[in-house]
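Subject: complex prediction, re-run

Hi both,

The earlier run crashed halfway through, so I resubmitted it with identical inputs.
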Amino acid sequence: MSDGTTSASDELPSSGELRERSRKALGSQRQPTVTVLSSLIAVQDELHYIPDEAIEETATHTNSTINDVWSVASFYTNFRFTPPGGHTIDVCWGPSCHLNGAQNVMMRVHSELGVEGEGETGDGKLTLRYSTCLGACALAPVIAVDHHMKGRMSPDSAAAVVDGLKGA
Amino acid sequence: MSVAFSELRQKADAEWVSLTAGDKPWVRVGLGTSGEAAGAEDAYDALVESLGDDAKVTLVGSMGLCYAEPLIDVQLPGGARIFYNNLAADEAPDVVGSHLKSGRADANRAFAWHGDERPEGLGALSRLTELPTVRPQTRLATKLAGDIDPRNLSQYIANGGYGALEKALEDMDPAAVLDEVKNSGLRGRGGAAFPTGVKWGFLAPNPAPVKYILCNCEEGDPGAFNDKGILESCPHTLLEGLILAGYATNSSNGFIFIRQGHTLPIENSRKAVQDAYDAGLLGKNILGSDFSYDVEVALTGDSYVAGEETALMEAIEGKRSQPRYRPPFPAAAGLWGKPSNINNVKTLSYAPTIIRDGADAFKAVGIESTSGTAILCITGAVNRPGMYEIPMGSLTIREAVEDVAGGIRDGKKMKLFQAGGPLFGPIGEEGFDSPIDFDSIGQTTGSLGSGGIIIGDEDVCAVNLTRNLMAFNQFESCGKCFPCRLGMTHMVETLERISQNEGREDDLALMERMGASMRMGSLCGHGQLGYNPVSSALKYFEADFRSHLEDKKCPTGACGVGHMLTPTRMRP
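This time it finished cleanly. Structure:
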């Protein structure tokens, strides 16, 4: 699933390259209505985060100010401003998952990753996020690996998924 | 019938016949978000690889029988469909392969059959429509879910799709379509249950040249997945409804509004819109008529409040999804200041059946106060979680849990249900015999809302569930109104303290006071209803709170796993 995702451990692209890729993403939006929000979504789909360069390019592209763009980017919780790990694991904590043992899954994922909350592992290779609802509530508890759903999780099966990623 | 449509229809019919009664068997693999989580994609890949040219293998939508996923069915040319449940990638090639080779279903592994004639050699195998999860259903909006490839326009048309639009454009003027929807008694399915025909009636007479119908699929309610379910399994049903709404209200544009990251609903609706344009079902002079209409898919970032109707318009405009002051109301000045209507996915998805079969047929389903169906997502501690479309008022909560969802797992007792989204709290035994319709559930402290019903068993502590709901509400407060932003935060801290047996004597009174401020000082329902989960929990489960506060212990042990792990971000 990892299609050339940026890993924090890899060498980071240059500022010029980020700017170039941002511009390309901004210009290739297919829907008729292009806004600050649609532009930020397009950039993050391409770069997996929003670098400062993309904020500036988005402002230029949408004829708005850097302030306008930051106000939108900082509001929606899906946007991030540093490169994510090579793989992202979402663990759902919505009520359906919660009642089916999501907290135990979450604690086990924490210990497998050696983290105490959301964010990147020490080596920067994996990113953990808490999700309010992944939308597969009937298969609770649910996790997602690089946006790919995995349901009916137990602490053990979640640990196995995480282990599989560590080697990858 | 217009020439344009009869050509589409002929082509679609021919394709359908070749799929169901052609020279090769048809293998359908159910893929919704829940199917994906159950491993349906892997099963599909394994089948494609192992069957090669021996069969057509297609990813279809989800029937809603999530407990049975991956759900795969095999149809030999002209024969009945044989369903296999929980058929994952490791088993699927063998089971389906030997079925195709021998021409006989695996009687031990089969789950149900569907067709005109009972296939031989399957003993007492249940008919699909006789399954306890299917028999109580009347599928109107989800009728084709699981039957057709959601990314294939022809398969929708071959099954009656766009027939309602054709009928409206050929035989009805916009006012007649509006009247039909008014007469059907359809009420909005986003939760507010406002009569849809009346809402459309606010927009229809406005002479403005640009008017919008906005379809809301933000669907942030945890435990609800029926909007996404329709979009990922049968997006053309919604699209046809959206075009009908545009016609009835003389509107110019439609938006399908979805949260980013929900891949299947987004991809399938984008494909549906594109295919509709290519077939002349969208754009200028639809099917050769005078009516022109444009639709696009707009994405929002992650924000629960974006599902509120005025915040939704802010998000489509590309801004922070924070609610607007009203008035002006959207029908007067909405998206970009233009007259707008906001409808839920389910609401619009009923429009095709209402126009095709008439208002009376729709009213014949459900009860007098609410016609049509309720599309339920039953999850939590039940044996058969899934999405079930039942006639409004036809079952009580208890019946839905016991008869449809297969009762509580591990033979345990049901302690509570939680319905209507995270701004409503847990409801106890007294509410279990409430019929499932807007007004009856509304008599409890809950709401039918969007149709998500989460079931808790005897091991659930009401304090634990309530702090989970409030943690969600805190995380999702948009921050515009400080009573909501700060009140939610303090409420979570207070519940956290109570759950860890460190509550203070006046904590319950404190939360009630905060709730009153939030109700009075918030612009939208998020803050106004913010105290609901706590007041509901206290009404039915005060003993759970007392146990934590006075006996310093959790009544079930559920709170014992320590502080709840939830994000603590607050929007700047």
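Chain A touches chain B through 51 residues (CB under 8 Å).

- K.
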